[in-house]
Amino acid sequence: MSAPVWPDGLQDGTPLPFSVWRVMHHVDGQRDISEVARLAGMTVPDVQERLNAAAAWIARATQRDLPISDDLAERISQCLTGVVGPMAAVMVDEVLDDLGDHATLNATLSALARQLTPERVQLFARLLRERGVT
Known about the structure:
This is DUF8082 domain-containing protein. This protein is mostly helical. Helices cover about 65% and strands about 0% of the residues.
């Protein structure tokens, strides 16, 4: 078995669930997966699941810092429409204009969330997850 390695972009300070860090703490590029599993007190499939979770977290974190594409802005508008109705497109356009060159996914969603009630934020987040935006 080959030795697992940290995903590109993962750093010591990256916020991950404890169950993932419990595995990543033992990943050093030298130990094979069975040794990592033994040290973490888990099965090999559990370790593989945590390694996949770490990679997925990093992929999402990287996505949050990317600039907003037209396609992504449209998907955000569609999700927001399910929350606030036809004003969603205007809200998204205004936020993107306000953010200018700093319009990342994270900044855009944060700015939109500030305009919503907590209940609507939860619905918006659920719709974003369902459409694969976050």
